[in-house]
Amino acid sequence: MEDSTESQYGMFWGEKLFPAKITKIPIIENFLYENDVMCIKSKEGVGKSILAQQLMFCLTSGTDFLDTYHIHRPYNVLWIQTEGDREETFERIGNMQKGLKCDHTKWGHLFLSGASMNTPRGMKEVIKEAKKPGIIWDVVIIDPLYTTIQGELTKDCIASDWVRNVREMKGEFNSPAIIVLHHENKSFYHKGEEVDRKTGDVFGAFGWGAFFNTIYKLSMKGGIHTLKMGKDRGAKISKKIDMKLLEPKPLMFVVDELNLSLSKVSIEAYIRDNDSVTRGQIMKHITNTSESSIDRAIRQFKKNGTLETFTEDGQLFYKWK
After folding, report:
1. Pair (94, 226) in one structural domain
2. Per-residue pLDDT, 197
3. Which of 55, 110, 140, 306 has the fewest CB atoms found within 10 Å of its own CB?
4. Minimal CA–CA distance to 176: which of 90, 107, 86?
5. Domain boundary pick from 203, 230, 254
């Protein structure tokens, strides 16, 4: 039986010269599209891995990213992590679950201490492990880039080998979208001022910049985390996203706009984290929110059907459904 899956690589002529579909299909509206190869880069410690975890949560549950960028359906996500501590990772995931949904049947965690994905042997091992669950991955997150490299990141031959092998991996899983996280090098200074690198500048080797069709830089200043797009080819992509990081519980990025209130997120997390609470307990715990804001949040939760009430010893309690 002939495979109906159309590859983007190979020789095309005649009736097969033009692709069956030209319009890019969104996975996350105005952010990530099918078959995309995205890079999110930042200095170490800014929050790339937390952002990747949040993307994984939203993608597997089909929940809009930042309550703003629509996700049409749940997706299968492979998270390749080659740095950090697995226990710390799952502690963060537990904290994120206080504020976000995740379908743990729709993602896999490939935890490696380095992967050498630019070598045939290294990529063969990655593909072998990624195939074990028998899941066709829709999105693959690589966290971070430099620990998947054997050799120097800045050499074009290294970049070319890595890109070729990742394209082979895409072919094994019906061309998933790829999100690559990358640590920027140390800052450079001139006359006491930090030199601002261009957002689209990637790693010094030409092959990297040619491979990524979308590049975001994640930065933080004055408590605001900003995703700024420096390069995009084709799709409609948000140029700049401002966020705030809530931590430690719930651990998540939010945008403080009409659809999402920071106080509502904190109140919801507190109620979820406890079996039952009173209004007074909420006010005592959420100290940076006015009483009127707490009351508005409670009314909204009740209206949405997510909060139930009961009376015990003459006192009103709230419980998350």
Report:
1. yes
2. 46
3. 306
4. 107
5. 254
Mean pLDDT score of the chain: 83
Report the distance separating Cα 157 and Cα 2, nearest Å. 35
Mode of pairing for the β-strands spanning 177-183 and 37-42: parallel
Distance of CA 158 to the CA centre of its chain: 26
Q: Residue 158, CB half-sphere, CA atoms under 13 Å: how many? A: 15
Residue with tokens 């593909």: 127
Task: Give the list of residues 6+ apart from residue 140 with CB closer than 8 angstroms, or none.
Answer: 77, 78, 80, 130, 169, 173, 176, 177, 178, 179
Q: Name the E strands within 29-148.
A: 32-33, 37-42, 77-81, 107-111, 139-143
Displacement of CA 134 from its chain's centroid (Å):
23
Among candidate residues 214, 236, 254, the one where a domain is terminated:
254
Q: Which residue has the higher pLDDT, 188 or 211?
A: 211
Three-class secondary structure of residue 274 per DSSP: coil
Residues 101 and 138: beta-carbon distance below 8 Å: no
pLDDT value at residue 268: 86
CB 219 within 8 A of CB 42: yes
What is the domain extent for residue 205? 14-254
Q: Is 271 helix (H, G, I), strand (E, B) or coil?
A: helix
pLDDT band at 205 (very low <50, low <70, confident <90, very high): low
* CATH number for 71: 3.40.50.300
84: how many CB neighbours lie within 10 A of its CB?
15
Which H helix or E strand runs over 309?
strand 307-312
Mean pLDDT of 46-71: 92
Helix segments in 156-304, DSSP class H: 156-172, 206-211, 262-273, 279-285, 291-304
State the Rg of the chain over Cα.
22
Poorest-confidence range of 18-27, 172-181, 185-194, 255-264? Answer: 185-194
Q: How far is CA 177 from the centre of its chain?
A: 12
- Residue 262 near residue 281, CB atoms below 8 Å: no
302 three-class SS: helix
Cα gap 86→49, rounded to integer Å:
12
